[in-house]
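Board work, copied verbatim: Aminomethyltransferase
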Amino acid sequence: MNESRHSPLHDEHVALGAVLTDFAGWQMPLRYGSDVAEHTAVRTAAGLFDLSHMGELEVSGPGAARGLDRALVGNLTALEPGRARYTMICAPDGGVLDDLVVYRLEPERFVVVANASNVEVVRAALTERLEPADGATLTDRSEQTALIAVQGPTAESILLGLVEPDRVEAVRALRYYAAVPAQVDGVEALVARTGYTGEDGFELFVDSAAAPGLWRTLLAAGAPHGLVPAGLSARDSLRLEAGMPLYGNELDRTTTPHDAGLGRVVRLDKVDDEGSPLPFVGRAPLEARAHAVPARTLVGLEGLSRRAARHGYDVVTPTGAVVGTVTSGAPSPTLGHPIAMAYVTPEVSAVGTDLAVDVRGRQEPVRVIALPFYRRTR
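↓ predict structure ↓
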């Protein structure tokens, strides 16, 4: 059996008394104290997350953009330097191999951020799909890169107090899904404004060796602003409230982007240098799926009782007919009642439809509601 890998911040988590868990082959903090307290801190102040288990794959060279256009479902040629894009890498049959965030740092330099469980799959697929004629080079930067996220309404105030003075305005002006290089407490960082919690916030890509010192600095600087370290449990409940998919739950090899309501990321309008439709892996089945009647639809479910639905539970009609499966579910600390996402048949997917979830043999009432469950107003 392979031993779990350790984040560059592992010793920091141990010193803070974190409960550690195996996640995608990594020992990562599940929580430091209370799941609900960490969740609430992110909604009301700020949370500090270690995301160093994510993978960073650099693709560079004169044909990097065109190569990524053929490898992924998105249009990376149209992405401006300094911006990021949510996209996916699909199998030839259209099934999702992973959902990704791609940053264009320079005209000929991209960083593809992959989920921890899929780094090897994404690296192998990109290696196969980037043709020699592209003049593109793939370099795995995951080992050398740590990723720290500061999320919540006070995240900007915390971070700006540590950014070098001549880069403060550049960081403050960052749009959603954009990134700029800056020094944070003297540490060279790529500062991105993306996030996975439904709140404003930043991700800091830094050298692994510099991560522990920066982590401690952020904790100290953020304490007066209400910042606390937050683990995977809070991260999961936050992303669920925000209606964001998790690979292995809402997305997997049997799911297309369209199934998950994310057909917008599939860019069928991509063209080659002659103006013809650009072939990319999975194009034909995804184009067919875009115009087909769906067999299932991803919906939000509002729990009408106290018991929460969980991943894998059956969704049923009031008469007991199985019409779907829960992909993610938990009590919502922000809303005060259980919530879930589920794939259901189209005829029961309309907002307002009353259904039930089989929770250990008992039918708990739920109602279909629009996603996301939570949207920040600040």
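The mean pLDDT is 96.
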